[in-house]
Design a protein that fits this description.
Elements (H helix, E strand, L loop, with lengths): L4 H37 L5 H17 L3 H16 L5 H17 L3 H14 L5 H17 L3 H17 L3 H18 L2 H17 L3 H17 L3 H17 L3 H18 L2 H17 L3 H153 L5 H26 L18
Length: 488
């Protein structure tokens, strides 16, 4: 294996593991969604069980770092806590945790739903804050066209205006909500809207309209088996009959509602219907029967108080458990954060290693190419140097040969000069002497001619010897014949 392949293999393995994890996350995220949906459906019937299932969703979402699932599990836990008594702290804690994650990750639907839940939480404690959250939720839901939430927010704002005794405003929002509920065929919402419109009519002293709305609500809730809405509608209907002094109808509705609430073991509804019966008997001036219902109401108050104490203890235990889960979640988040940092660091190191390896490979290739070019240049330089050395050697040989030739020629020239000045000039001088003697008639003509011929022959011989020596490089020096020049 080449040294630069290892970081590339590590990077590939990290990438494959990331794909594998993402594949598992998709499968587990579906489970988280199902857990949250199941927990939400239990808020009316068994909120404690709903909290347990929401905790399962939370643990799984935390394990796979599914932010939307974590936030939604917080919201569903808060929703279930809101249906338990004296749980405002737990409810608000989980709602705000959910809201923080929804906002941070820009999950607009979850953000809007959580704001709606917060509005419901503050409905009976801080109406100003409640209205703010409802309207903010409605604003976001309208922008993203979340029709079910638009309907719900209108219903909640209408309910809030009922508590503020702004009945006209309440009616306006409730009618808007009812339009959306009809479009969505949402029976629960539609039944609740009719019930709340009946409440508005009741406070506006329009009792006939109250009866119509209550009956419309009952028609839907009984068909859809919406027991809690039915109980509230029966109570509203009974109060309307009481206001109209329809005692028989009021008693029938109250006793029927009481029997239903007792079957459901709904202590609050039992309390409300017995209070209605107490008011009915008091108005009928049947004080003995009224006192009986009043004692039962007092007894229910005591039972409810004991039950609330038990619930508080149970909720405290649940809160301790949830606090431990929260602590584990935070530790898990920190661990996941560190793992993500390490993973990103590993990817960065792998990428940097790959970049460095690429740079090194390119540098190595450039170096090899440069070395090859340098070797080629060096060979060319050596070849040219050898050629130059051969030329220099040949030049030296030529120079040495020419120097030798010049020395030989200089020697010959020196000899020629010497020869001319001594060997050739001698006969010439003799000729000049003979000519002078002949002019002075001091020598016989015949003798003069003989001597002159001898001088001319000597000069010719010397000239011929010089000519031969000049054309014969192997010959060194000139011939120096014996002459009797001293005799002349």
């Amino acid at each position: 294996m080449k040294f630069y392949q290892l970081p590339l293999i590590l990077f590939f393995l990290n990438f494959c593991s990331l794909l594998k994890v993402n594949g598992a996350n998709i499968k587990d995220s579906v489970k988280v969604i199902k857990f949250n949906q199941e927990a939400s459906s239990l808020k009316f019937t068994n909120p404690l069980e709903g909290i347990k299932i929401a905790n399962k969703a939370f643990e799984l979402a935390t394990l796979i770092n599914y932010k939307k699932g974590i936030a939604e599990s917080y919201r569903i836990k808060g929703l279930n806590y809101s249906y338990l008594s004296n749980t405002i702290d737990s409810t608000s804690f989980y709602y705000y945790k959910a809201l923080e994650i929804f906002k941070k990750n820009n999950f607009k639907e979850g953000h809007a739903r959580c704001l709606n839940n917060l509005g419901s939480m503050f409905l009976n404690t801080d109406q100003k804050k409640s209205l703010f959250y409802f309207k903010k939720s409605l604003e976001i839901a309208t922008k993203i066209e979340l029709k079910d939430l638009i309907a719900g927010c209108n219903l909640n704002i209408g309910t809030l205006y009922i508590t503020k005794k702004q009945y006209k405003d309440a009616e306006q929002y409730l009618l808007k909500g009812m339009i959306y509920f009809k479009k969505l065929n949402n029976k629960i919402g539609l039944s609740s809207a009719y019930q709340n419109l009946g409440t508005v009519s009741y406070y506006l002293n329009d009792y006939d309209k109250t009866i119509d709305y209550a009956k419309a609500s009952l028609a839907i809730s009984e068909k859809e088996n919406l027991k809690n809405i039915s109980l509230t509608s029966y109570e509203l209907l009974g109060h309307a009959f009481l206001k109209l002094n329809k005692f028989l109808e009021c008693e029938q509705v109250a006793k029927f509602g009481l029997s239903v609430s007792e079957n459901l073991n709904n202590q609050k509804a039992n309390y409300d219907f017995k209070m209605l019966l107490y008011e009915l008997e008091s108005k009928k001036q049947n004080h003995k029967q009224a006192l009986k219902y009043l004692k039962e109401v007092h007894s229910l108050d005591s039972i409810e108080y004991q039950k609330n104490l038990a619930n508080i203890v149970k909720l405290n235990e649940e809160q301790i458990k949830n606090a431990e889960i929260q602590k584990q979640y935070e530790v898990g988040l920190e661990r996941q954060k560190n793992n993500r940092i390490l993973f990103m660091a590993a990817i960065i190191v792998s990428v940097l290693s790959a970049v460095i390896i690429v740079i090194l490979i390119r540098s190595k290739r450039k170096t090899e190419k440069s070395n090859q070019e340098l070797l080629a240049l060096n060979k060319e330089f050596l070849r040219q140097k050898e050629d130059l050395d051969r030329i220099n050697l040949k030049l030296e040989e030529i120079i040495a040969e020419r120097t030798k030739d010049l020395l030989s020629k200089n020697q010959k020239l020196s000899e020629y000069s010497y020869h001319l000045s001594h060997q050739v000039r001698g006969p010439v001088a003799t000729l000049k002497g003979l000519i002078m003697l002949s002019q002075d008639n001091l020598i016989e003509e015949k003798e003069c001619i003989v001597q002159m011929k001898k001088c001319v022959d000597d000069i010719d011989e010397q000239i011929m010897d010089i000519n031969i020596a000049l054309h014969d490089p192997s010959r060194h020096g000139l011939k120096n014949p014996n002459q009797d020049s001293g005799n002349l």
